[in-house]
Design brief:
The chain is of the alpha/beta class. The protein contains 11 helices and 9 strands.
Length: 314
């Protein structure tokens, strides 16, 4: 049986084919290693780095990473990315999943399930229902703590976290983590782990912390990789794999991506903006009331022009 391609895996999960850069990156990762920096514009689908990391783990488990953590300091993006990961999990773990997705699920399960544990009788497999091929962990404030991901160090994990949640755990100071569990969380997040650091320009101290940790412990053979992702990458483009003296060439879009109909439409979309001055006088209550009235008037104007979704930030 031939192995499922990344394109078939991605399309079976999401219902549409990957962009050229996603296919190109998947081939690079499976065939070698991750680039140190992904320079990709907003709307190009950076979250699919999760799909690529999972596919690489299934295809080349000895060269990939069992724990995949996307870290971004925006709660809403953490939630969106975790929903993306749960969509992948639901698709590949479904009883009626296409053969391509079942193959990926089987490969991921083989990383932590011993075939000898399955009991056969009368030619049928009587083992309990198969566990999920990987666990999804969403670590952020404003929600109950998730701890299931740390129960099995051998099971693949896709984690999405804010900087403070994963950073504190990596440094033995996890929020809500008991002293007895702190070393376990730190160990899981410090070995056999891939960090996808999104919006890296907003998390420079954490990026520096990861660089120091990796440099300090790389002689121990810990499998630890950091991929920086951003639509506005940092000015210093240095390779975290060795020292800051090694300059890297960012992985980005090429002509095939810009010619892709869907991606070109996203990249070429315009977002017009204009400044509306609101003059307010009087005491604080009157000033706020006038500002609120002006906001309502602008919303009504946009609705009359056909706008369907409007967000008001004051």
């Amino acid at each position: 049986m031939s192995e499922p391609s990344f394109a078939s895996f991605y399309e079976k999960v999401h219902g549409y084919p990957p962009f050229p850069w996603q296919q190109r990156l998947a081939e690079r990762v499976v065939g070698g290693s991750w680039p140190a920096l992904l320079d990709l514009p907003t709307g190009s689908g950076k979250t699919s780095a999760i799909d690529i990391a999972l596919y690489a783990l299934a295809m080349k488990p000895n060269a990939a990473y069992r724990r995949i953590f996307m870290v971004v300091d925006r709660r809403i993006i953490v939630h969106q990315a975790s929903q993306h990961a749960r969509t992948i999990l639901a698709k590949i773990a479904a009883p009626d999943a296409p053969i391509e997705l079942r193959r990926i699920a089987e490969k991921l399960r083989s990383l932590f399930i011993d075939p000898s544990e399955r009991v056969a009788a009368n030619g049928r497999d009587t083992a309990p229902a198969a566990p999920p091929p990987f666990t999804v962990a969403e670590l952020r404030g404003g929600m109950p703590r998730e701890t299931e991901w740390a129960r099995r160090p051998d099971q693949p994990v896709v984690g999405v976290s804010t900087v403070d949640q994963v950073g504190s755990r990596l440094l033995f100071r996890g929020y809500g983590v008991s002293p007895g569990m702190a070393p376990i969380h730190a160990g899981l997040l410090g070995n056999d782990v891939l960090y996808l650091l999104d919006e890296v320009h907003l998390a420079r101290p954490f990026a520096d912390t990861l660089r120091v940790i990796k440099t300090r412990w790389q002689h121990k053979g810990a499998r630890f990789a950091v991929v920086r992702m951003s639509a506005t990458p940092c000015e210093d483009r240095h390779d975290d794999r060795n020292t800051s003296s090694t300059t890297v060439v960012p992985f980005g879009l090429n002509s095939l991506d810009r010619e892709n109909e869907v991606l070109a439409r996203r990249l070429g979309a315009t977002k017009t903006a204009r400044c509306k001055e609101v003059k307010v006088v009087g005491d604080e209550q009157k000033r706020r009331a006038k500002l609120a009235k002006a906001c309502v008037e602008q919303v009504e104007l946009m609705l009359s022009r056909g706008a369907r979704v409007i967000g008001v930030v004051v």
